[in-house]
Amino acid sequence: MERYDVAIIGTGPAGLEAAITSKVRNKSVLLIGGKGSSDKVSKAHTIQNYLGLPDVSGEDMAKAFLDHAKSMGVEITEDKVNAVYSMGQYFAIQCHGNDYEASTVIVAAGMTAMKPFPGEMENLGRGVSYCATCDAALYKGKTAIILAYSAEDEPEAEFLAERADKVFYLPQYEYSGTLGGNIDVQLDVKPESIEMKDNQAVLNTGSGIYAADGIFILREQIAPSQLVPGLEMDGNHIKVDRSMATNIKGLFACGDITGAPYQYIKAAGEGNVAALSAVSYLNNFKKN
Ligand SMILES: Cc1cc2nc3c(=O)[nH]c(=O)nc-3n(C[C@H](O)[C@H](O)[C@H](O)COP(=O)(O)OP(=O)(O)OC[C@H]3O[C@@H](n4cnc5c(N)ncnc54)[C@H](O)[C@@H]3O)c2cc1C
Prior knowledge:
- By secondary structure, the chain is an alpha/beta fold.
- The protein folds into two domains: 3-113 and 221-287, FAD/NAD(P)-binding domain; 128-218, FAD/NAD(P)-binding domain.
- 25% of the residues lie in helices and 30% in strands.
- It contains seven helices and 19 strands.
- It has helices at residues 13-24, 39-42, 58-71, 132-135, 154-163, 224-227, 264-287, and strands at residues 3-9, 29-33, 46-47, 56-57, 76-78, 81-86, 91-95, 99-107, 128-129, 143-148, 166-171, 183-185, 191-197, 200-205, 208-212, 214-218, 233-234, 237-238, 251-253.
- The strands form five sheets. Strands 1, 2, 5, 6, 7, 8 and 19 form a seven-stranded mixed β-sheet that branches.
- It binds flavin-adenine dinucleotide.
- Flavin-adenine dinucleotide (FAD) binds at residues 9-15, 32-34, 38, 40-41, 44, 47, 49, 80-81, 108-110, 220-222, 255-256, 262-265, 267.
């Protein structure tokens, strides 16, 4: 498997700038995220405080960022990172579509107002999971519940349903899909809490109880402490020093995920610092 110098999670301003700076420093780059930058960029109305782009629409700013990255040879690998594991000399990066390896990792995954459901964290890995495609093989002849937050999760449900006996699909977005067969789509179900009872994962909702062998929660974002086991947090943010280094050697973070102020230019600036720190880490690593 190819081992990249720098893997970057997130294609907002922090991740794109980190990728551009890493490229300028001649490092091999794996940039994982959405092809169209982040929604927080592309869906913003008018931005007045980004240097060099006065009164720009979010759509135009996203285009400027992506064009710049493309012109530098930065490619986006469209995928969602499920977990990052420090293996000592390198990092193993588990995504929904593939697994990767990199010598350093920069987390630029933005902030989410996500609050876990009561019982979610306690039962993570013991009935609750964030990646249906990763765990599908374990569901042969079993039942599962999927809490889905985007139409992009529908292929993931189909993949799981090829193995599982039955899948309850609970869309938390405006559903207009065509899922069928052994996928039971239940609309307007509001999840409240999760618990394990008699070896079954139980989802309590405003309209009744669902029980199955496992519950998959397919939110766009995963809490950083779940994304990278052992990561030191400062409240909801990843704790970093001025070089954007975290408590895990070789792992850096930048942008909204490291704390307020939540601003494009701050995110991009931190992306630049994180990349330079990753480069200097790589250079020192090679010397030792
Ligand atoms: C409506 C709106 C207007 C705003 N207006 C302004 C403004 O005028 N000026 C200003 O300075 N700031 C503004 N902001 C704030 C600005 O959007 C953020 O500060 C900035 O986008 C943060 O950049 P980021 O790269 O850290 O994170 P984000 O832009 O949030 O990008 C993070 C990306 O990582 C992706 N990601 C997350 N988890 C994973 C994973 N596991 N695997 C792969 N990818 C993942 C996300 O999907 C997202 O695309 C505005 C925000 C909003 C919502």
